[in-house]
Amino acid sequence: MSETIPVTILSGSLGAGKTTLLNHLLTNAGDRRLAVLVNDMGEVNVDAELIAEGSELDLDDGIAELSNGCICCELQDDLETAVVRLARDRNFDHLIVESSGISEPAPVARLFTTESRVAALYDVDTLVTVLDARLFLDTFGGEDVPERSGDDEDGRPLSDLLVEQVEVANVVVLNKTDLCTDAELEEAEALVAALQPDARTIRTEFAAVDPDRLLGTDLFDPNRISELPGWKRALADASAHESGTQHDRNGGHASHEDDHTHVHRHPDEIYGVSSFTYRRRRPFDPERFASFLRSLPDGIVRSKGIAWIAGNEMRLDIAQAGPSVRATALGPWIASLPEIERELYRSNRDVEWDDEWGDRRSELVFIGTEYDRAELESSLDDALVTDIEWDGDSATVEEYGDGAFPTEAGEETVLRSP
Question: What is the rounded distance in angstroms from the CA atom of residue 104 to the CA atom of residue 98?
Answer without folding.
Answer: 11
